[in-house]
Amino acid sequence: MAQPTEYYSKYPKKFKGTGIITPVLKVFKHMFKTTFHRPVTILYPYEKEWVPDNYRGRPGLRFDRCLGCGICVRACPTTCIELVEVADDDGKMVLRPQVNVGRCMMCGYCAEYCPVDAMTTTTDYELAEFNRYDLIYDPRRLHFEYTTDMMEVHIEEHLMSNLAKGITDQPTAFYNTDRPVLEDKKCIGCQKCAKVCPVNAIEMVVVGQNDKGKDIKRPKIDEATCISCSNCIIDCPKDALKMNEVL
Amino acid sequence: MSGLREWIVNRATDLADGGSVCLNGHEYSDIVGMSPYDVYNLPYDIGVKVWESLGGLIAWLINLFVPNNAVSFALISDTATNAMAIVLMVVVIFAIGFVTNLTMIWQERKFLGRQMDRRGTMIGPLGYLQCLGDGLKTFMKENVAPRAIDKKIYWWGVVLVIGTSVLLACMIPLSPRWFIVDYNTGLLLIFAFFALAPFLIMCAGWAQNNKYSLIGGLRAAELMISYEVPMLILFAGTVYMTGSFNIGDIITWQEEHIWLIVPQIVGFFVCLVCAIAESERVPFDLSEAEAELVEGWQTEYAGMKWGLIMLGDYFRGFVACALVNIMFLGGWSMPIINEFDWYYQYFPELFFVLKTCFVFIFFITARGALPRVRTDQIVNVGWKVLMPLAVINLVITILIKWIWDYGGVF
Amino acid sequence: MAQEKMNADKMWLTMGPQHPFSHGLWTLRAQVDGEIVTDAEPEVGYLHRGWEKECEQRDYQKIIPMADRLCYSASMTWSHLFCKVAEEALDIEVPERAQYLRVVADEICRIQSHLMWLAAVGTDAGNLTIFLWALREREFMLDLNVRLCGQRLTTNYPRIGGVRNDMPYYFERDCLRGIERFEKALWDIVNLTDDSSIFVGRVKGIGYISREECANLGITGPAMRGCGVDYDVRRDDPYDAYGDMDFYVPVYKDGDAYARFRVRIEEMFQSCSIIKQAMKKLESIPKTAPYRLKVPKAIPEGTHMARIEDPRGESVMYLISDGTDRPYRLKVRSPVFVNVSASKRMVQGVRLADIPTVMAMIDMCLGETDR
Lengths: 247, 410, 371
What we know:
Chain A is of the alpha+beta class. Chain A contains 9 helices and 9 strands.
């Protein structure tokens, strides 16, 4: 059984109104100590505290890694992320996240859910600007110079079914396991899912011909390249796709 | 050669010779006949010298345009020099008191910072200029006053609180040659002015038409009844021992015999506590307890009024420290080094201020180590602890004095 | 409307919402007779943000960082509580490693929350040294938070079915060093408070509540244990790994402000011991062991309740789920909201100068009170 500490057991008995001598001496001692040693405070704008790499400052983006899948947009609790069209290095227009840092709560969900670790947390916490528009970080500005591997946030989830089987060394994440499945009856073959897929994992396959002799197309999902971004599910006009959550 | 030009040449020759700088070639003893002092007074002398150069310059400039005019001669006449020297003397004494005060504010901020494991002020050399910056900032603030106040008392209250504090600081002599008036009841008068503040604070608290300031003002009165009595009993002990109310005499007695802290060690600590309470500093700052009363009796005093009140508080802190110094630590006297000639020639003022700052360290540590006492606690402590100790101290003093004078009690 | 005759003897003093003693936005209207307080009335609600309603618009995952914002210094326990109620709804058990990590994070949070309280007690009693020393120690605890969770206050560390990340490198060493340093440094602060007759005189014998009143008013947490009720959710209804932990629950029978003060100080010492035990246990669990489960986004229909020992008392969340990925209703029972209702009883009869010290022992946090 746990024992109370010295403070609880002995202190009230020992105390008989020792007066003010102990605190005065304590403070005096501390004064001499800090006169010869530095006090713990730092002169902030001139000296800065070291922050570890896993510090969650503003979000950072590695432009070339990003797929423009929009998982971060949907994961953001404050809806401060928005996909905008920007020219990539080759001049092609691509979708990339833009973050309104003024609204950001630094939860790190965008970095955590990013399937390709393009979004990272950064150690940048000095974000003051003179007006609110400057707080909107476009995809290029989101780039953080000193990004290290430690700033990536990985999800290492374990499937409950695996744990029940006794497998404890196969950490995974939703983007490895969850895949959309098609409800064939509802599908009208509009190809919208194939258009919105950021990784081109959906291919429209001809499965037959209808009465008028036209091809019936159905999406075929390449499970290896799919990143479970659920763009196809959201954009499906007939709700024919559903996410199959593997547990 | 005009008379004025002759005078200027004489002055220049005097200065070049390195001779004593005296007005119109007279010896100092001629001046003292006109000055209000029968002893040498350094601030007055500084005033005389400053007016000699300043007034002489003005007189010379006027004389350039209007040769041999009456105004120039009037400016350098003995009467004008004496009058202006007294004005300048007050400025000098206030300036030194002010600088001492700023030093004590800086000292408190630095020491308190070190006690709390932080750095204290960092502006200027060793953070000394922060006080000036704060003063400037407070000065820039708008001078607002609430509408529903008792205007007369509101303004006179704050003026008198600050005024008495500054007056007290000027009344403290720094050395045998640094004083305004060498009055025989010096200590008594300082105590009288010191005790005036709680009454003014009470009035100011009432006049602000604010519940917090009302309670704060009444607390000042409550505080006063608890510390003032033991303080005066201690004061009686000092006076009985030294046989005089005159501050100079008290210190001379201590210089000749012994610092009063040795026979009256109990009284010293009681006096420290009372002095902290007297200057209303942190363990006893009931009238401006910021935890429950927002700023106490100063709540409605905004801008530079508040700044001056803070400055006045530190003036009172300086006076309280100086009183402890005078009553127990021998003022400007130092045990061994005051035997040397150069000590009284150059250093007594400096040592007085240094010793006062040393006493202030106790004040700062009390602020750093102790939480604020409650109203009933201070009355309890005042009457049940400090008062008996003060009486014991008085009894010890009387016994020692009798043994000293008559070689026995009976 | 009949007008009451003005009572000239007594004065109503409105303390707050902008008042140095009210740590946060709340008002205590105190009726004073000279210096003696005869009546008081707490008014809360200035900080109402519609937290519970806002949660109904969000996924379960997104509520976790919002739960951090319930209280600035008990963020870890609040997000832990939300995860706990969601886990109860999903009927899953968290991996062992995550349980111990949560215990470590919870206790670090408890220590830093209590240190924030101690700092507030320092200023309320009128001593800035206690404030700064306590905040200095708190800063080391926040550094541990940064190391473990990535943020100082809004930790966002627990997840439904585990925790966000495993311990980073050297965290174990840093944590144990920090705790050892803290145990020594806390004695320094104790020297300023318990060894000072002025401080003890300020807090002893004021703000008395009896055991029965405590039960009637629904006070929980250290305030309740200071009144002699021997009850701690961590011990009596253990959650996560607290069942394995060996710790002492400090109880005092005095019922005054000083007893509440001592309970919290002793709790800090006990938290240190809990962290050490949990760290020792974490050593024996392999580093590759799972610490996070993959959970479904939607929670099945039903009503669920979970409770947890917050630094301020017993906090409860009540969840009604309708089978979607958003809660139908999420009710929060804040311990401070209940405890502050006792302020009327506590401050009656004390002096005006005692109001800050008595109310400091409740450890106000307005974020969770007004939600």
